[in-house]
Write a structure and sequence with these properties.
Blueprint (H helix, E strand, L loop, with lengths): L3 H23 L2 H22 L8 H14 L11 H4 L8 H33 L5 H25 L5 H24 L2 H23 L6 H19 L16 H8 L9 H12 L3 H18 L3 H19 L19 H29 L3 H27 L1
Length: 404
Amino acid sequence: MFDSHAFYKKRLASHMKELGRYTRYIFNGHIAFALFFFIAAVAYYYQAWLAQLPENFPTAAIIGIAFGLVVSYSPVRTLLQDPDLVFLLPAEEKMKPYFRNSIIYSFVIQLYLILLVAAALGPLYTASYPGREGNAYLLTIVVLLIFKVANLLANWWMYRTRDSNHRRLELLVRTVMNILVFYFLIAGEMLGACIVTILFAALFLYNYFLAARQAGLVWDLLLEKDQNRMQAFYRIANMFSDVPHIKSSVRKRQWLVSLVTKNIPFEKRHTFDYLYRITFVRSGDYVGMYVRLIIIGGLFIYLIPNIWVKLLFVILFLYMSSFQMMTLYQHHRTIMWLDIYPVEKTDRQHSLVKLIFQLTIFQTILFACIFILMQEYTGFLFAIVAGIVFTYVFVNGYVRRKLT
């Protein structure tokens, strides 16, 4: 007899083994040091900023939005695989323990995000409302956990409908309600919180009865959602190690491709110059990751008051960008045609080193321009010099050595 509970335990054990295999590469010595420095600097300046917090600071709105988004993001990790659409679909009635365990597992693995956000915003709450007792914030966290469970169930019931527009509308309405509930709780307006909670309960019951009328789960949707989340993890892990399971996504971006390739000479030794540039633009999340690091790094450089710490963040984000771009070298490892290209291996390595150098120098210039916006011209000169020196040493030293 088919035991879906025992089957889930085997599937979960295999999943945890897969995660552990790549997690140890992600949190290696380089990234651990960068994260430690990053968290320490943020904590120090966060505490200093709280000491000068304005009286009219919109604490309730910020915490309400943060808590509302955290509980609204409630995906259910089913751990389904492609063959399940054939072999498990006929046994859907016996899969209830499996999916119940999936919901419990999803709640447990998302607790870290809830506790992280609650811990980060706790000092802000205390600084903004010094007259309130500490139990008030703890009760808000309890409500946060209750709403997390409710959102997980509501999200699970929405997997029974194929109408993507309906799912998106339901998620939007539920997210707005979540934000309003926590805004009213933090602001101390209990009447507003009660009214929105009643509306949320009505939506919750509507989702339940709507799901009960459906014939069954949309298995292909469950599989698609779960594989998308796993592919997102693989793309992150692929920045640090070779991941054979990753599926590359390709986007056209014709105008950007023409921009980065128009000056490449039509010569054999520039073959990989062209390939790595169009790979950077069109494949995976390379451009997105590069832009995100520029935006996040720029925000920290702009907000942190100490010029020397600003320069340290310049170096930190340059390091993170150049380190993660090294995975371009292995991006086409499964394409055997590259091995028969009449191109020297040294030319291939030189093409990637040159691309990483150019991207990092461009990032250095953008970070340095932030100092000009703040009229810190000495910082601009230091950022340019430090960025160029770091780029030259790191790219021509560490990166080139790793590619040989």
